[in-house]
Design brief:
The protein is mainly alpha-helical. It contains 5 helices and 4 strands, in the order E-E-H-H-H-E-H-H-E. The strands form 2 sheets. It has a two-stranded antiparallel ribbon with strand order 1-2. Strands 3-4 form a two-stranded antiparallel sheet.
């Protein structure tokens, strides 16, 4: 089977269900951002050795793949429900809480950077926030699957705390933002 179909050469793509839309459609932007996030999570995963973090990241990748497929479905057809459960949200919250126990209180704004895995976690956070904003915009226009917004919101929180945690574990000082005076 060939990977190229040439059906998108004029700037259109097909949603699950057959409807064709512009590649600039907000729905395509939404699932594209989720796909981009998943790719960067793969890079972060490959950069880490801590088993518990890697296991959760792999679970997140599976959830995001399912979530992206649901977003790629034609909302006028048979909906695809993402494989999201309340336990997926609670797993993120539990990980956030566990990592936070090891971290000093956040008393200032911090800049991304200081260590490669810290930077990668911040990249994941910012892509996740963009995906969330795009899904919100889509949700204002069309049907979106239940649970997607909550999952993306919690996931971006997870990446923020993960960035801090990875820096803490690596013994790297957070880069404090200092405004000009």
């Amino acid at each position: 089977m060939k990977i190229y179909t040439k059906t998108g050469d004029a700037g259109q793509t097909g949603l699950f269900g057959g409807r064709r839309v512009s590649k600039s459609h907000i729905r395509v932007e939404a699932y594209g951002s989720v796909d981009e996030l998943n790719a960067f999570i793969g890079l972060l995963y490959d950069s880490l050795s801590e088993k518990a973090v890697r296991e959760l990241l792999r679970q997140v990748q599976h959830r995001l793949f399912s979530l992206g497929a649901a977003l790629a479905a034609d909302p006028t057809g048979t909906p695809i429900q993402p494989d999201l459960r309340p336990t997926d949200i609670s797993a993120l919250e539990e990980a956030i809480d566990a990592m936070s126990q090891e971290l000093p209180p956040l008393q200032h704004f911090i800049l991304p950077g200081g260590f490669p895995t810290v930077s990668l976690a911040h990249i994941c956070r910012t892509i996740c926030r963009r995906a969330e904003r795009t899904v919100v915009a889509l949700h204002e226009q069309e049907t979106t699957p239940e649970g997607v917004l909550q999952y993306l919101n919690r996931l971006s929180d997870y990446f923020f705390v993960l960035a801090r945690y990875l820096g803490h574990r690596a013994g790297v000082e957070e880069i404090k933002w200092t405004p000009r005076t």
